[in-house]
């Protein structure tokens, strides 16, 4: 499948104005193949406020936010870019997204990540219902981002195209989350800053498989192997060795400060696909755990076989912060996928279904100095 190039700009609604949403607005504004026609907000105080102000662009875009779902669907947009929080309302958000495609609007969303792959996590009848809604409305739904997303679906699968034999594929995120602003995720889901016996949601049996299992299964599907069930979950949590400041809430010594977890897909009992997260709130803690080769965080792909390969992908904002750039790359993976998703077959689509997605049209037009040459 070749790269999709729209004949005219696609009309886009951005759904949310928070952590991801503000970067979605900025991304649509900069993209030559997209036109911003609407913005949804859950916050009454933001209703009527210009999208440019909400995104911190320093200028107005002529599009104001609304809390009215039906008003935005009635605009007949080509696509909704959905960046609203879904981690704490998974099934409600699936109903929301299914409703959009049933109404004939394509959707590209940052969550829920359980929809990154079609098989093995949700009941077959639920997945069939999403596809049925898409066929009814003639619209597609794509869920992605950076992790779960590009860093552990397209990136490792492209690297496997260089393999003669594959014994094991391991994809990792290794990061310092102290500057990651998402209190619900940090405090409630991970349990950072909580007593070590706090029952954080992520460490309950089966939750890691629900959240990151689709990534492991998608890689296996891309490699043509059938995994044993259930997937294997491994978790090691450690207390903070000292008090640490965090933008989502300070971490006191002795409370949970770091975690290393894996979701492993085996074939006949042999590990073949592994997803690992090494997450710290203090970059100097746990020196015996994997660390980035440079910077505050990285995504790493390791393939053992013939040949053995390792690829480390790092990112940071132009002013240095890797969590800001993390929000940008999450948003841009969604923004740049819109043309391909609009052109896709109706129903739920995954990275295995889409053609090449690039940053077409985003090369700077300024001076060499502005381009960093």
From TrEMBL:
Gene3D superfamilies referenced in this protein's UniProt entry, alphabetically: NAD(P)-binding Rossmann-like Domain (3.40.50.720)
Organism from which the protein derives: Nocardioides silvaticus
Keywords, alphabetical: Kinase, Transferase
Taxonomic classification: Bacteria, Bacillati, Actinomycetota, Actinomycetes, Propionibacteriales
Listed name of the protein: Diacylglycerol kinase
Annotated GO MF terms: kinase activity
InterPro entries: DAP_DH_C, NAD(P)-bd_dom_sf
Protein origin, superkingdom: Bacteria
Entry keyword annotation includes Kinase: yes
UniProt domain 2,4-diaminopentanoate dehydrogenase C-terminal: residue ranges: 152-358
Short name of one Pfam family: DAP_DH_C
Keyword rRNA-binding: no
């Amino acid at each position: 499948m070749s790269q999709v190039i729209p004949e005219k700009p696609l009309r886009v609604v951005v759904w949310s104005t928070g952590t991801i949403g503000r970067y979605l607005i900025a991304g649509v504004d900069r993209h030559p193949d997209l036109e911003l026609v609407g913005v949804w907000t859950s916050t009454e105080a933001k209703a009527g406020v210009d999208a440019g102000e909400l995104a911190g662009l320093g200028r107005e875009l002529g599009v104001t936010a609304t809390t009215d779902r039906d008003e935005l669907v009635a605009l007949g947009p080509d696509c909704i870019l959905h960046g609203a929080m879904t981690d704490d309302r998974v099934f409600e958000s699936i109903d929301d997204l299914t409703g959009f495609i049933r109404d004939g609007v394509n959707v590209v969303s940052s969550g829920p990540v359980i929809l990154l792959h079609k098989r093995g996590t949700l009941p077959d009848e639920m997945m069939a219902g999403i596809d049925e809604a898409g066929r009814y409305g003639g619209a597609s739904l794509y869920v992605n981002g950076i992790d779960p997303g590009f860093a552990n679906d397209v990136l490792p699968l492209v690297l496997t195209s260089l393999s003669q034999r594959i014994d094991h594929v391991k994809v990792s995120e290794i990061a310092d989350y102290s500057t990651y602003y998402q209190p619900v995720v940090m405090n409630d889901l991970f349990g950072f800053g909580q007593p070590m016996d706090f029952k954080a949601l992520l460490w309950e049996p089966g939750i890691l498989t629900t959240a990151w299992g689709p990534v492991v299964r998608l890689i296996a599907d891309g490699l043509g192997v059938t995994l044993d069930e259930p997937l294997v979950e491994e978790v090691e949590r450690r207390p903070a060795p000292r008090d640490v400041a965090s933008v989502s809430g300070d971490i006191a010594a002795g409370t949970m400060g770091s975690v290393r977890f894996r979701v492993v897909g085996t074939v006949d009992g042999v590990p073949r696909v592994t997803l690992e997260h090494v997450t710290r709130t203090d970059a100097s803690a746990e020196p015996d755990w994997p660390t980035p080769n440079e910077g505050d965080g990285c995504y790493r792909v390791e393939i053992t076989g013939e040949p053995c390969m390792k690829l480390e992908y790092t990112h940071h904002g132009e002013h240095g912060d890797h969590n800001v750039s993390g929000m940008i790359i999450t948003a841009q993976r969604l923004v740049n996928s819109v043309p391909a998703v609009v052109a896709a077959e109706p129903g739920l689509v995954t990275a295995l279904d889409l053609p090449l997605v690039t940053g077409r049209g985003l090369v700077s037009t300024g001076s060499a100095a502005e381009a960093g040459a």
